[in-house]
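User: I'm putting together a teaching handout on how multi-component assemblies are represented. Below are the sequence lines for each component of a complex, exactly as they appear in our records. Could you produce the 3D structure of the whole assembly as structure tokens, so the students can see both representations side by side? Please keep the chain order the same as the input.
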Amino acid sequence: MTPPLDLVLKHNLWANQALFEFCAGLEPASLDRATPGTFGTLLATLQHIVSSEQWYIWLLTREPVGSAVNETDPRPLAELRDIVALTGQRVIALAQSDDAERTVTVDGKPWAAGVIYAQLVHHGNEHRGQVKSILGAHGIEPPGVSAWGYAMGNTVASRARA
Amino acid sequence: MTTPPMLRQLRHDVWATEQLIARCRALTDAQLDLTAPGTYGTIRRTLAHIVAADESYVVRLLGALLHEDRLAPSDTVTLDDIARHLGHVKDGVERLFASGKIDGDRVITDTPARRPDQPRFEMAAWVPLTQFVHHGSDHRAQINTVLSANGLEPVDVQVWPMADAMGATREAK
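Assistant: Of course. Below is the structure of the complete assembly, with chains in the same order as your input.
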């Protein structure tokens, strides 16, 4: 019996990899594009996804994963792509044996570990959505990163069923 | 009693959409019809799309229809319509987990919402569950983009404020 959260986290990893891979194929200048109402440039948003996943995992384990990403220090997309693979795999492994009710201290406040997992999932979906908005606003068809696409094993099916 | 992690995810999803609806009640009709480049469409259409999709996921997972027909997104749908249908979703999510945890590997062979002319899809239960969570956050981000792009205050729909509101966190003594 597979816990559904396990698949949600696997989708998170898959969607990040699909999006980062897609962006790696763009003209480098495209990474500096933005659109009003979103987090920032395309690269800054991707970097924010990575640094946040590192932070969530640190909250859960007090251990770093990958080279620390500082949001004020721009990193090459290739590095971010490698790190987001590590964070995605780490959180999947963590969730398999973690207790969602375990207390985790965040800024001096006790939280259930499950809240951190929920935030990680929400955060990735939210900011990937912004990346897609930036792409769409600049006439670039974004890749499908829905669960349909993950289930079908490719990114074309998800667009057809969105 | 331990809350199943997936139920926590879905409760957050419903809560976040409720927050957006509450925010949108302070908007004018004209503001509800605002949009921004790269997003799904107007705020009104996007909200209705989120809830209509949620209904389809819940119906598939429950194997039963909800209290009324699925919400039909349109340019005239009202926030009251959307909120009422989100209530059905909320109720359906709780019923889904009423007997405990869900087996993500359980194969769902069809949905009661399928029209006769539509193809039948078999899928593991984790697929609509994962899509539910992905889809809501994806489109709520678009609504926040539309709000911000038009100089309107977006809504913080992260898990943190929900946890605070539910008393799931407190100052450590």
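A couple of points students might notice: The first strand of chain A starts at residue 103 and ends at 106. The helical segments of chain A are 4-24, 42-61, 77-97, 113-137, 147-152, 156-161.
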